[in-house]
Amino acid sequence: MQDPSARHLATQATSSFTEHLQRSRPELLPFGQALPAGTVPPTPHATTIVALSYAGGVLMAGDRRATMGNVIASRHIEKVFPADQFSVLGIAGTAGLAIDITRLFQVELEHYEKIEGTLLSLDGKANRLGAMIRGNLPMAMQGLAVVPLFAGFDTVMGVGRLFSYDVTGGRYEEQEHHSVGSGSVFARGALKKLWRPNLPEEEAIAVAVEALYDAADDDSATGGPDAVRQLWPVVYTVNRAGNRRIPERDLAAIAEEIVESRTVARREA
Amino acid sequence: MTQQFYVSPEQLMKDRADFARKGIARGRSVVVVSCADGIAFVAENPSPSLHKIGEIYDKIGFAAVGKYNEFESLRQAGVRYADVRGYSYDREDVTARGLASVYAQSLGAVFTAEQKPFEVELAVAEVGLSQADDHLYRLTFDGSIADENGFVVMGGLAEQVADVVRAGWESELDLAAAMRLAVKALATDKEVDALPPTAVEVAVLDRGSESSRGSRRAFRRLGAEDITQLLAEEA
């Protein structure tokens, strides 16, 4: 039996930033707010994310469009973010909540690292993200769902791993590749044909960009490469060295090559 | 009921201060030095896992001497304060000055209100774009706060160690030179000329972490190999 003060200390000591906020500043959490009755007005939605494994790691790519009903809400939005040194996450669904959940998740990982002096395991990170998505379930039931995709390099096992989620926070480890968002069906079809085991990094990036191109071709909510505004997908790779954002000019070259090869082929798809 | 003897407030505060000072002087010293490459933290600490130096935020580091459980709880409180602030406002709104003033308030409150004061002394450092923008704050057990220029020495025989640092410090020192100076200073009260790399804990707030490492987090802990290498470099 512990004495009351020791028990108090044990319950106060947490390495989780989310738990700390729940106790001391619950109003700062993106989820857990009681929504009043009524329907939520239209809000921007983030769309397609693809992720795939390649030789030595995993990569994630997202298009640049957010939609609100039939309107394009943003052409510049970024939906793939570094979570910490060895992981990235992409988000689909209600953009406002998703971006705040991403911010919370980034702080959560950094907070744990600073308090404990060590990195959280990749499974630990994936579980924390699942708990956050579950926390958002009441909002999802009001139509404000957030569905992330999580990829990271497991430094213990020495492999890149991929996790998908459902709105209840269910966490599923994916093999080879996966996609989420409105254009995911089309991206997935493209990935099935384009992906193969042990792709070199440059080819893997091209495969991801092409899968997004196919998604944009058939899904009006997904944005394709925009040569007029010079907008290209956001792509992050994660391998043993950590995560890296692929520079704009590399993506521009890859996107132009895809458009050119499709033009030359002179076929419907 | 036992009779309470009257103790004058002056005597009470003096007793508490003496108690805290004794506790701090028993420990080993920590040196924080601002140099051309950033801010170096060097602590005499034989343990590789119980740290006296820690990361608080992107540009802010923490060093402490005294009782481990007390400064560790203060460090964790500092990380929580900084993360909540950075999350609710913005990352650039977290400053060493804000953190130091929160520390000063809690140390001051504990000093006057609690059973016993904290037997700790803290340094909070923020690295800036240039050396003129660096901030070094020293916080003592009673909640006093001092804005230091160039370097901070705390704990153990702080005066003797500070004399050595003061004699050798100049603003143009690079990281290796600053570390050598700190390690030399920490060895003043010892029989040996310099401490072995395994007996010191070293961390640095890199001034150019964005350009050199692509990270906004400037704090970097140095391993035994890095320390040996930097100490071996001849000026």
From TrEMBL, chain A:
Question: Which keywords fit this entry according to its UniProt record?
Answer: Autocatalytic cleavage, Cytoplasm, Hydrolase, Protease, Proteasome, Threonine protease, Zymogen
Query: What Gene Ontology cellular component terms go with this record?
Result: cytoplasm; proteasome core complex, beta-subunit complex
Record-level Gene Ontology MF annotations:
threonine-type endopeptidase activity
Provide the primary localization: cytoplasm
Active site annotation, chain numbering: 47
Q: Does the keyword Hydrolase apply?
A: yes
Known function = Component of the proteasome core, a large protease complex with broad specificity involved in protein degradation.
Protein family (similarity comment): Belongs to the peptidase T1B family.
What is the protein's given name? Proteasome subunit beta
From TrEMBL, chain B:
Q: How is its activity regulated?
A: The formation of the proteasomal ATPase ARC-20S proteasome complex, likely via the docking of the C-termini of ARC into the intersubunit pockets in the alpha-rings, may trigger opening of the gate for substrate entry. Interconversion between the open-gate and close-gate conformations leads to a dynamic regulation of the 20S proteasome proteolysis activity.
Q: Which InterPro entries match?
A: Ntn_hydrolases_N (IPR029055), Proteasome_alpha-type (IPR023332), Proteasome_asu_bac (IPR022296), Proteasome_sua/b (IPR001353)
Q: Which pathway is this protein engaged in?
A: Protein degradation; proteasomal Pup-dependent pathway
Gene3D superfamilies recorded for this chain? Glutamine Phosphoribosylpyrophosphate, subunit 1, domain 1 (3.60.20.10)
Key word Repeat present? no
Indicate the family of this protein: Belongs to the peptidase T1A family.
Subunit structure, per the record? The 20S proteasome core is composed of 14 alpha and 14 beta subunits that assemble into four stacked heptameric rings, resulting in a barrel-shaped structure. The two inner rings, each composed of seven catalytic beta subunits, are sandwiched by two outer rings, each composed of seven alpha subunits. The catalytic chamber with the active sites is on the inside of the barrel. Has a gated structure, the ends of the cylinder being occluded by the N-termini of the alpha-subunits. Is capped by the proteasome-associated ATPase, ARC.
Q: What role is this protein assigned?
A: Component of the proteasome core, a large protease complex with broad specificity involved in protein degradation.
Protein name in UniProt = Proteasome subunit alpha
